[in-house]
Design a protein that fits this description.
Oligomer: single chain
Structural class: mainly beta
Radius of gyration: 17 Å
Shape: globular
Helix content: under 10%
Distance between the termini: 29 Å
Length: 241
Amino acid sequence: MLPLPSFPLGPYGRGLPRGGPLPGPVQYAPLSTGIQFDGVNDRAEVVFGATAWPTDFSVTGWLRIGPTTPNRFVAGTTPTYGGDGFHLYLSGPNLRLTSRGGRDDVIFTGIVAGQAYHFALVVTGAGASVQPYLNAQRLAPLSLPTGNRPTVLSGYYFGGPGLAFFDGRLADWAFLRRALTDAEVQAHQAARILPPSTFADLDAYYRFQLIGPAAAQTPDGGPFARHLTLFNMIANPFAAF
């Protein structure tokens, strides 16, 4: 099991990529901030060496919705609609999930602008079975035929540009190469930050609370340093979640 990452990773507080160092470690209240996406051209991504899609895979995180105009890209393992991976997006009040080959499923109807939601996705059987959650409650599961199952994992993407850009805030997103249990999804929703018990097989962890290690990045708290590059963000994209 991996140790809980230590934040921040550098000497600067959130939103302070330039200027003098702070006098000591900066502590944040759980889920006190997230990254604000403006719905115009903001995005964050990391691309790494492609690997075969794992047998089990999970993603969990928080989102707060801006105006629910159609087709806002939220997060995924591919920036391309119907690309080789999963792609979570908003279409009005509907939360939708696309998968390889252009499959498109409505997984929840009734998203409310301005409200925070906890989301999780647990993918098992090398992509055959997909269990989405909202606010730690199971939604209807999906069974994917071979043509819709992902085959590669090569990056993480937030905010766009596979569809229109996301308008809202994201906080505390993690990707794991194993299946989270119901109890672990519930623990993240209750704790609001990823609890240490979920850190086995962590692939990437984005608190979305600070700049670093470079001014145009937000850090990965996982073991592989897959830091997200921020595109078109204002100098201080962090806002109260």
